[in-house]
Amino acid sequence: QVQLVESGGGLVQPGGSLRLSCATSHYIFDWYTIDWYRQGPGMQRLLVASIKGDGSTYYADSVKGRFTISVDRDKTAVYLQIDSLQSEDTAVYYCHTNYNHYDYWGQGTRVTVSS
After folding, report:
1. 32 versus 6: which is more confidently predicted?
2. Pick from 33, 16, 4, 23: nearest CA to 79
3. pLDDT of the residue at 67
4. Which of 23, 45, 70, 91 is most buried by a 10 A CB count?
5. What confidence tier does 66 reach under pLDDT thresholds 50, 70, 90?
6. Which residues contact 113 (CB under 8 A, 6 or more apart)?
C-alpha cells in the first residue's frame, strides 16, 4: 500500500505562484519515481513533471522554465513549484507513482488561475 496526499492548490492570478506538495507514505529511494499529472477542464490527464529519489527530473515542454519539481531532504515528500502561472495551467494536479506494477494516485489538488 502506498498513500499519496496532495495539497497547496488554490486560486491565483495570472503571473502568480503556487507550491504544491505530495506527501508519501514511503521513503523515496533513488530509483523510485514520483510524478505530477494535471487534468484541465475537458482535458486528458497528462504528465507534467517527474522526479526520482536521486534528484533526476523530467518536465513536459509546456511547463519547462516555469515549474520546478523537487524532493524534500527527508525524501518523504515531493514538491512542485509553479511560477508565472497562466490560465492554461488551470487544472486538478495529481501525484502519482507506480509501485510493484500498480498505479497509485493522490486525491488531487485544484489550481485555478484567473484574473
Report:
1. 6
2. 23
3. 98
4. 91
5. very high
6. 12, 13, 14, 16, 85, 86, 87, 88, 89, 90
- Predicted local distance difference test score (pLDDT) of residue 27: 86
pLDDT value at 81 more than 90: yes
35: closest CA among 65, 1, 11, 67? 67
Q: Which one, of 7, 8, 26, 5, lies nearest residue 17 by Cα?
A: 8
| pLDDT class of 102 with cuts at 50, 70, 90 | very high
| Residue 52 neighbours by CB distance under 10 Å | 16
Helix residue ranges, H only, the chain: none
In sequence order, what are the residues at sequence separation of 6 or more whose Cβ sits closer than 8 angstroms to the Cβ of residue 34?
4, 22, 24, 28, 50, 51, 52, 71, 78, 95, 96, 97
